Amino acid sequence: MTAALPARRPPAGRGLAGLRVPAWLGTPVRRLVTAVAVLWAAATTAYAALLLAPGDTVDILVGDGADTPEIRAQIVAEWGLDRPEAVRYLSYLGRLLHGDLGRSYQLQRDVGEILAGQVGPTVRLTLAAAAVGVVLAVAVAVATAGRSVWPRRIVSAAELVAVSVPQFVIGIVLLFVFSFSLGWFPVSGAADPQALVLPALALGLPVAGVLGQVLREGLERALEQPFAVTARSRGLSERAVVARHALRHALLPAVTLAGWFTGVLLGGAVITEALFGRPGLGRVTMQAVTGKDMPVVMAVVILSAAVYVTISALLDLAYRLIDPRLRSA
Amino acid sequence: MTELAVTRAHPAAAGAAPLVAVEDLRVSFPASGVEAVRGLSLSIAPGECVALVGESGSGKSVTARSLIGLAGPGATVRASAFRVGGGDALTFGPREWRRVRGRFAGLVLQDALVSLDPLRTVGAEITEVLAEHDVVPRPARPERVRALLAAVGVPDPDARAGQHPHQLSGGLRQRALIASAIAAEPELIIADEPTTALDVTVQAQILRLLAERKAAGTALLMISHDLAVVAAIADRVLVMKDGLVVEEGPAREVLTTPRHDYTRELLAAVPSMSAGSRRPTGTLSPTPAPRDPVLAVTGVSVAYGSRRAVDGVSFRLHAGETLGVVGESGSGKTTLARLALGLLAPDAGEVSLRGGPWSALPERRRRPLRPAIQVIAQNPLDSFDPRHTVGRLVADPLSALPRRQRRERAIELLGRVGLPPELLGRRPRELSGGQRQRVAIARALASRPEVLICDEPVSALDVSVQAQVLDLLAEIQAEDGTALLFISHDLGVVRHLSDRVLVMKDGRVVEEGDVDEVFRHPRHPYTRELLAAVPRLPCSPDERVTG
């Protein structure tokens, strides 16, 4: 029996960007500071990309759009290109603070407006894909954890395939089977809810693959712990032991991965939306990149950072909800 | 105690049908080819306390868990007769077993920190039993939880029910675990090493609580490696070895006049609290000659946050001397070891080694002196790199020697700790607990240290192995004149080996002096409390814990 050493606190400021913040600021303030720092870094990186791109800044901002003297004058005025470097940068940050993401000169519309119109379909798609991933993973993991060898082997193999095959291949296969051959689902569009099924599957299956493996491993480890023996000794069925005790323990490592899923889903949305001809942020991003519409690309970078920051904050909360031991720390 | 309806009418123990009757029980694990239990017979009468004792791997836990159908995944359980709670367990399916579990028999495991679900409140854990067996209707459950916690001596049960295991002290959460085991008013409590993770004073409280349950009419199957604990509570004792019962009888008889050699061995190995057991005729007499101490600790304090882990501790350690440090968990023993090793800088005070500065040195200048002070930890499995071989582990401190000599020296060191050279190629996981601790000692000896810091070096070992390792340490000390700082929560072990002893509580030294003097005439109330709490061998009827 070792004399219990005081539990070591997690390093101060284990923040989103690994920035260290004095401990006295307390957890909520610390989180907010790091969140703002990440957003600032993303905005600055986007701005640096604009500056470092070869060629004239006005040319870059115009992109493939209509290049008229009026538009050029408008760009110079809006981006303050006739003013000193520092003022330009600060006014750029100032505009962002006001929620002004700038203007796409190709589309002749405010970037904020363009993105706002496309957020809906993408949110629907990623949420549906996340739901597919979580539901499939939990169902499969609960059904196979600690069970006989054969079902586990088959499921493991299926998970490996789901993880290693690119999303667009899964998408194409789904399209061939369920749209072209069977005709159960529409080939493209986003008009009716049915059109959401295949893209959500294509996007969610790889997530289900990884999550399923992590969950099953966590479940099997939890089911060997003494508290699981105690639970069985109370007369609980094996299913109740899993549902009431082990699953929560298995969720902890899975939650850690949720930040990574956000990236998979956002990145995958670009390809999935293009493949299924859906409107959405992914498609806007594709078009902006190919059309060199720099203001839109910059806005997407900042928006993705904001999504990451929000998800990370939510995950931190989720941890504390699941594991009471973290609440007192 | 009696505010709860758990107390059942005292059964007429004699003549009543046994709760459990097993004959020729055999439990094997075909996947690994292990035969854990090889033909054991056992019966437990209502209200009786039966103890299964034996060392790790003797099959006692598997036996106990088989009685509630939880021998483990992949276990094959056979018996010529197997009656549990009036039913024929040989015909039980999952449904019947679930009715036995919790309702007929409650299980109490070792450490409630992990035996209660750490993510749920203790109230939820107890409620689970009430709900599963529908003991009381839903609205009455919170009140029943409160009553159960109160019955096992948890103060302020309303607040405690809403807390998680990690928020309770070791004693309180073990009580909560017992409350969950007795929630459905079982006729039998199976307690598997219920006090092993606890400090000695808390252990005494938990044993008293179990004795109370027994007095209230509940039968008890107690599994323990600690014969003294068993002596305090058991009516009958079964001594197990290699899956077989080697001796069986009334507790007093087995523990005072053992018939089987193995029982005698076990009893002889228990480090005794009585004087004179120490020091196998050392060549170096522990004369307190006016020499300079090899290790001097002067008024050291260290705080973690606002808590003072070590508070103004001073001691001197001379060559060839053993200084014991006793205290319960959280008393600052391990922190003191880290201070002595120079792994932790004191907030105040100073540590000096061989008359020179030690704690005041920068690590760069401390490093060349490190070979002189070595450590042996409780669990070498944690302090060894699991991928290194024994040879590499032992030779680690010998990097100055050429490869060939290193190997020779490693073999020589293994020989000193009584291990054959064949073990050089093994990895830590392939060794027994005792062998691992010997390897740890060999590694510590490799740099010919003047000071050995032993932090609970035998706490994880079986009692017979414990005695061997203690003898080995004493032998080495007698040969080399090494100074030992010996930290343990086990008073018997400390008395066995030490010349002088420090008693620590809350970071302070409350008493110190010659070991025999302190143990025979403790001055501080805390020392007296510690000594009184130690369960003793042999048992006489007046020493037994009663409810």
UniProtKB/TrEMBL annotation, chain A:
Main location: membrane
Database matches in InterPro entries: MetI-like (IPR000515), MetI-like_sf (IPR035906)
Keywords: Cell membrane, Membrane, Transmembrane, Transmembrane helix, Transport
Similarity comment text for this entry: Belongs to the binding-protein-dependent transport system permease family.
GO cellular component: plasma membrane
GO MF annotations, alphabetized: dipeptide transmembrane transporter activity
Keyword Transmembrane helix: yes
Gene3D superfamilies: MetI-like (1.10.3720.10)
Residues covered by the ABC transmembrane type-1 domain: 119-315
Protein name (Swiss-Prot/TrEMBL): ABC transporter permease
Record field: transmembrane: 32-53, 125-145, 157-184, 196-215, 254-276, 296-319
UniProt cross-references to CDD domains, sorted A to Z: TM_PBP2 (cd06261)
Keyword Transport recorded: yes
Highest rank taxon of the organism: Bacteria
Bilayer topology annotation: Multi-pass membrane protein
Species of origin: Microbispora hainanensis
Lineage: Bacteria, Bacillati, Actinomycetota, Actinomycetes, Streptosporangiales
Automatic annotation (TrEMBL), chain B:
Keyword ATP-binding: yes
Organism (species): Microbispora hainanensis
UniProt name for this protein: ABC transporter ATP-binding protein
Superkingdom: Bacteria
Domain ABC transporter stretches: 20-267, 295-531
Keywords: ATP-binding, Nucleotide-binding, Transport
Pfam families: ABC_tran, oligo_HPY
Stated family: Belongs to the ABC transporter superfamily.
PROSITE patterns: ABC_TRANSPORTER_1, ABC_TRANSPORTER_2
